[in-house]
Amino acid sequence: MAKKQKTFRPKARIPRGFRDRLGAEIAAEREMLARIGAVYEAWGFDALETPAFEYTDALGKFLPDTDRPNQGVFSLQDDDEQWMSLRYDLTAPLARYVAEHYDALPKPFRRYQMGPVWRNEKPGPGRFRQFTQCDVDTVGAPAPYADAEICALFGDVIEAAGIARSDFFIRVSNRKIVDGLFEKIGLSDEADMETRLTVMRSMDKFDKFGAEGVALLFGPGRKDESGDFTDGAKLDDAKIETVLAFLKSGPENSKGDPLGVIEKLLGETQSGAEGVAELQGIKASIPDFASRPIIFDCSVIRGLDYYTGPVFEAEFASGLTDAKGRPVQMGSIGGGGRYDGLVKRFKGVEVPAVGVSVGVSRLLAALELKKSAEETANGPVVVLALEKDQMAEYQKMASELRDAGVRAEVYLGGSNFGKQLKYADKRAAPVAIIQGSEEREKGEVQIKDLVLGAELSKQIEDNAEWREAQPAQFSVKRDELVEAVKKVLARR
Predict the structure, then answer these.
(1) Structural domain containing residue 414
(2) Which end of the chain is more exposed for a tag (fewer CB within 10 A), N or C?
């Protein structure tokens, strides 16, 4: 007798580095993006939507150099044997779009875009392979006026997302100032590229390792606590002192005048002088600069091999804590800068561009930690379906609530009363609507305040007392349903 072939059943599992999202988190992100989008449009920027896939050779640093170009991106080969990749960010698609439609577009071209991006990188805690980006860019306008506008807009967007102006600051620097630093220490030639990259990577660790730690990385190298050794840039002592003086030029060490310190340190270099002038131009172009959370900090090293001028990075001004009062390090909540060379890859001519990307996921996480009133999202009101032949009436109740602006649904999973209440709890429903035969004969409905009920159940231990009181459940006339539910929700 032939063996019965076993039916293949795939294992239900999500790919590593990805996640499912549900309900409240999606609603909170949608609301935040709507507020941010309203600010972008108020400033005169138009929405742009580009496809998830781009030809891989359009993604710049991820040009295919192997049989399968999967370094950093998710790629596949089209039926015409051309490689396509899921977009790594929203800037490369913008550059392709501008180059493709350059003659027809108004210049400057002002656009914003929101959507998912994908990165084929090692996932970790809070680091996913798919996440949402929210960008705004001006293409075709030189520094410093467009940079000043983007910097001011950046602050308005973070406020619109729900973060108070006093709770964040935007650090501003300039790639040209870093170029001036390398001129100063004799590392400006093409042959010095690898050493410059090593120095910049080490500079980016200043906050983490401090002056002593990065000095080792500028010099012979550094051994970490695990015993692993990182080779250094091999700079001499005089050059190390110059780089450290640059890193210490921030507002906390410069008596509030970081640009003055940098001008004194690097003013005789061409790039340094141009960088300082551009930052001064940003300050002069923002009318209410003094009241905005913008500080100049030339120690900001934000992907400076990519940017060509001013760079911006937003951070929280004070430490966030979790529910147990422990400090939480959120890192950057967004950033960007001037990148005049990106469109040049397509056009062969330099096209000025500047923009920022807002860290939506980190802003949402911060609002969750800060217990902002806007972060709470209740589930829908649930109308219990106790009698199958009354389903049309139950749907009518839900429809009346929706018409009044209240999220509502009818339970459709069976008539068991206990299971229906458990479902409402799992849906985080604030209210359950109950009408059985007894209530229907009286022309009434029962309103069950599930939030108040959960709170009171922690205080009342005696079942008899609970049955007698039932303070979270009450009856109203059927035609008073919507008004009664809205009153309960208003207490939330």
Answers:
(1) 378-490
(2) N
